[in-house]
Amino acid sequence: YGTGDVTIIHALRDYPKARAVLSSGGLDGRLLDSNFESCINWKEEDARLIWERARTLGDDFRIFNLLHIAMNPRPPRSYRWVKPQIDVIKINIDATIHDTVVGIETIARDSDVFVLGGRVVYLDYKMDVQWAEAEALREGFVWVRDNNVARAIFETDYAGLVNWFRFR
Fold this sequence. Notes:
Elements (H helix, E strand, L loop, with lengths): L7 H5 L3 H9 L4 H5 L7 H21 L27 E10 L2 E9 L5 E9 L5 H18 L5 E4 L3 H8 L2
Parallel strand pairs: 1-4
Antiparallel strand pairs: 1-2, 2-3
């Protein structure tokens, strides 16, 4: 084993029964057959192997690689507020949840981005996000009905609610 301290692994690997117990416990043959100088060297070898695999994946698929352009880049999108047509009111709805309180907000704007009105409702009971956003949409419907709006566009930042209506 050379000059140096003998670790427990080095001492046990020469005994067949101990070797069988270590192998059945999940240790593969690399730890028992390799000649490591210190007890921690096998971890360094495993870390090196993992790094080589990650580097190979990164080179092959360009995963999180800032040197190359991604193979499937996302198209640029505009995330700005779009003015509605002249005879349409745009209703922005949102819900906020904090512990056991739910806040529901509705803001109505015309084509000149003038705020026509709004509604804020606080509910003092616990609700999950889907129901809170659905309740915000219901409050938007109530505002449209109460103000006799003929044409309205509803805007929300909750993708689940949008997709529910979009794919129906």
